Protein 1
Amino acid sequence: MQTKYIMTNSKSSNLSDWILYRSQRGKYTFSFQEIVINFSHLSKQTLKNNLNLLVKKGDIIPVFKGFYSIIPIEYSLFSIVPPDFYINDLMKSLCRPYYVGLLNAAAFYGAAHQKPQTFSVITSLPTLRDTTKKNTRIAFISTRKIIPQKWIKTIRGKNGDFFISKPELTAVDLITFQKEIGGLNRACTVLYELMEVVKFGKLDRTFFDYVPTSTIQRLGYLLENELTQEEQADIFFSKAKTHGCKFQKIPLKYNKPTADSKINEKWKIIINELIEIDEL
């Protein structure tokens, strides 16, 4: 249920005043629905026109359909607000579970060589359309499974808390969603540094129920044979078997021919891809 935002003489107050009043109290996001509720004496078209004027002035920015962020003074020069500033409020507005993942999560753990160009958000179905505002792209990646709260964590941002994947979930997501980050070579480059903070010893059934077995196999093979992480790979293998993962032969690189490829019997991986880790 939407909470009506109360101002003195709200019918005589303009939208600009409402937004200023809101920002002064640390509320930097709002939806079009909230505007409609608080300015019920104005038509929707009038409200849209007023919002467009405020966007042109650089006071606010539309970050998703029907959802806006007020631009704080520290971002006013370029009129760009980073997604981590508003992502939690946006996902609450959409009533969606989520976590920030892939390269963005890896960067938080010190495992990205440069700032990711895409802000990756893993969420539930149905699929949300990606959005790009002011050269900032948010990629929404959908999962059919219930997001396990145990493997995400809360971190403090400039506009409150938001959720990111823990290192262990980040590691497997880099393999599961390798296409979204540029392929296996990119994934391995990031994994090499991410493994400094990964602790596979604490994995339990909730983890293996969520992560595809094919991802477990590919990651385990890469850790043991490409990333010199034999000890971590052994722990990972033991945990996978303890929690019922049944390996079947799969290609290291999907959608690529496997003829004459060797097979790693431990991880049941058909080695049809040469891994080249970027220089660190």
Protein 2
Amino acid sequence: MIRTLFALVVAIGATVSCAGTVIVAGLLRMRDREGGVYDIMQQTWAQLIVWASGVKVVLHGVEHATAGKQIIVGNHVSWFDVFSLAAVLRRCRFVAKQEVRKIPLIGPAAGAAGHVYIERENRKAAFEQYKAAADRIHAGARVVVFAEGTRGLHYPLRPFKKGPFVLAVSAGAPVVPMLIYGTIPMMPKGSFRVRGGTTHIHFLPPIPTVGLTYDDRDQLAYQTYRAIADLLQSEYGVASPPWDPRSRKD
């Protein structure tokens, strides 16, 4: 409980300071550039939360995520997926569900910093919003998408949404499969209790999309899913169910 209270106090302070700075920068129309105020404030905010929570982040295969203009596609089981990744990966922007926009300070700040909100229940609107994500990629940012769409309760992968792969094809950006492991005990879905631990973030070799078309989205989704599932099995002994992307219409 002491850890949770300490992390909460630090998170509130970091959010007020960092998010407030980002909102003001947005109002002043400060340019979004590598190493600029948006990048610095995002990373500082996440690093403070990770530190206060007693979390250590270990990166694997980071050489695969060093270049800009990528779409990083991974699994999602905890809010600490976001905190851990933002703490160590510069120049990244997240694709988040529309509900995040309603979170005080965080929602407006994320919008000002160039993160993209997706209306998951409105397919047409979602694909339009993915175009904004493509603009972020063309501007040199790594765009991070949690392809399962929302947090899960367990590590085995769940079916992926198609939107991230349509985005990758339309933007001509390589897909970097990503596995995050270790964050469930830190803050599982449905709980606000914080526990320390180690986050392992694995980046796999990029999957090129040059020459692919909309009709290739299923194969790209399957290839990404399989790469992450195979690593999850070999590294942590967690098996994911078979998945056929042709069974989903989204």
Protein 3
Amino acid sequence: MIKMVEYLSNLSIRVPAIDQYPYNIPVLKNGVKIEFDKAITFVIGENGSGKSTILEAIAEKCGYNLSGGNKNHLYEHHRTEATMYNFTTLGWIKKPYDGFFLRAESFYDFAKYIDDMAEESPSILGGYGDKSLHKQSHGESFLSLFNNKFDRGFFILDEPEAALSPIRQLSLINVLNQLRKNGKVQFIIATHSPILLCMPDVNILEIKDGQISNINYTESEHYTMTKDFLNNPELFLRHL
């Protein structure tokens, strides 16, 4: 058992009865209560189940830039009328000094922001492998961020596998495993990757039918469907 850093211990989201997205997502209407007791927690579920909304609610409450970044990354991000801030409660054992919210879908904007900052202060690239994120492949820039910026703090990752090949996803598992050994990090990660989910000593929270439950890797649809498909792809393709 790997000792967990004492950051976030629990999360509660209770939204009002509003028939408007995202408040009408079933898992939010039913109320969200989560206890965290591992350094790494994966959140899984179908598209539209509420994974990203929950992660964004946590990030908003932490004060992280909602397009990606930390409290000090002050570039413009998308805004909607909906906010979870007043309906989200985070139970901290100890508030983290640093952290980051990674959104795969808006990472391009974050990389541009860092490049723009580096034009005035080139030393800023030292935190990203001394190389512009835009001069690396998408996957390389992701791993550069993980390797150089995620040494201590509370990190929220929304589908980090989006830019990573299967081999690079294994590299990410190695990075995450090394980071948690220092006892100074906590990760909450939304993912669709059956590769990342096989990581040992993690919690896997599945959103299904408007409920959140803690499951084992082999109980996840990611595991069973991937296994069945690879064992007999012809059978699946005939049904498509």
